[in-house]
Amino acid sequence: MNLPDFEGMAVFVKIVEAGSLSAAERLYGLPKATLSRQVVRLEQALGGPLLLKTPRGIRLTELGLSYLARCRPLVQDAIALQDEFSARSSVPSGRLRMSASVAYGRHVLAPLLFEFSRDYPLVHLDIEFTDRPVQMADEGFDLAVRMGTLPDSDLVSRRLGSVQRLLVASPAYVERAGRPQSPADLISHKCLLIRPEMRRWQFQGAEGAQSVPVVPSMVVRDMHAMKDAALAGLGVTILPGFLAGDALQGGLLVEVLPGWRLAPAAATALYQKTRTASPALSRLLEFLAARLQGRR
Question: What is the pLDDT of residues 168-184, one digit of tens each?
Answer without folding.
Answer: 999 999 999 999 999 99
